[in-house]
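User: Hi! I'm working on a homework problem where we have to compare a predicted structure to a textbook description. Could you give me the structure for the chain below?
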Amino acid sequence: MKMSSTTGTRRLLGPGDPDHLDPASGYHVRPGQLRRMLSRQLFVFAALDAPGPDGLHFVPVPDVATEVPTLANGGVDETGTRYVIRLRGGVWWNSEPGREVVAQDFVRGFERLAHLGPDHDALRYFTDTIKEVRAADDATLHIRLRRPANDLVDLLSLGYVVAVPREHEAWAPGTPPGTETLSNGPYQVTRSAPGETVLTPNPSWRQESDPIRTGEHARVEVVAPAGDEQVRREIADGVLTPAWSWGVVPGSRAAFPEDFPGFTLNPYLVFNLRSPNANRAVRHAVAHAVDKVAVDEIMAGLRDVVTLPIHSVLPPGNLGHTAGRPALASADPDRARALLRTAGRPVLRAVVRDIAFQREVMASIAADLDKCGITLDLDVVAPPRRFYGDILDPDKDGEWDLALVGWTPDWFGNNGRAVLRPMFGTGGSGNFGGYSEPEVDALMDQALEAPDPARAAELWRAVDDVLLRDLPVVPLLAFACMSCAARTGSAGWPGMP
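Assistant: Happy to help. Predicted structure tokens:
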């Protein structure tokens, strides 16, 4: 990105409009990042290029809250189910007349989460955890939980948990950008038209009451490009960089060590456990047959993509990740053939999205499996939106055995609720293969309730161990994803607050 020294304007490129600035409806990179500039939260994660306390990434820090509640400071009771959050003063709405943000504004924000819809993962994070939120007075919130949750402050750091003024109650979620005119962040929306959104400084915002953001730009423009050629030209000229870009070139693995924050499990193979073809011997044979290094080399050809072969469902940057776990990166055809001695030569129906690099990855996997005695009957699904919405819908009995998928969590760090629970918990929204194991469900409950972070990490590793034993999925690569946390506004991109 480049800021003009004369105009003080930062120009951001889409593609597309930053729709749904309302925090109860947006779920994409652009609105998440803009909401972070417009709205104050109780807690936030620092920008991805700015480590938090003790040099750690993805550790929540106070925003409007005065401090992170703990047992020692009286913010959490001994049961771990009652929280007291005190708010700082000097945070103002740009209303007429102006007024300070109060605790009831945050209560209103919680109430509006219902607009996310009952099937929205983010709503479930909160309804599964929080029993009651109330304002004890203008500067104090009381939160009562259903059960202890060591990730509550992480949940409260998502961009959905923002203060909402009473004036907003007259507006419906999903109203067009620009109609949410009230702001308590450093910027306010001054123009919203097809293809362009303009932010300018909020005169009611005060730097001394905001420990996270800055208001250094006189103008922020978000424009939709006319096409791919404009994107390439603007990037080449140094005018801007896409918000989701790492700013690296293909193959530059050295820029990102294994413990760099922001890795997701993407891609990976998931088995349809409702199918008789996905028995344990076949699953383990597939795991030994796939050459993950070959898949990694395919991904290395994509611009601004950094991946690492992995043999874990918990990538680096996620609580419980085990560094140094054997990667099984190179294929072991002999081991795969030995596992198939009693299974014959299975034929598996595999589904993949109609995206070029996805098809290339699946073709590589098909060649590996063929060498070991497994035939893939490949079904390319188009348009791609049908893939998750129809073919892999957990509520539908799709006729498939193996699928190439990815999973993107809403935040990193202490995020087992956003990774392992939806992917492998019984009935989880991302549990595409129908995996259900009481041992795993119980371990996840214990991990979420553990008051000691070290114990929680140990329990998440135990979940990982059971999953590698059962192999409902075959992990392939850890994918460095900056935009994943940015889409909910839970983390800023480099150079932005």
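For your comparison, note the following. Residues 1-7, 175-179, 235-259 have pLDDT under 50 and may be disordered. The first strand starts at residue 9 and ends at 13. Good luck with the assignment!
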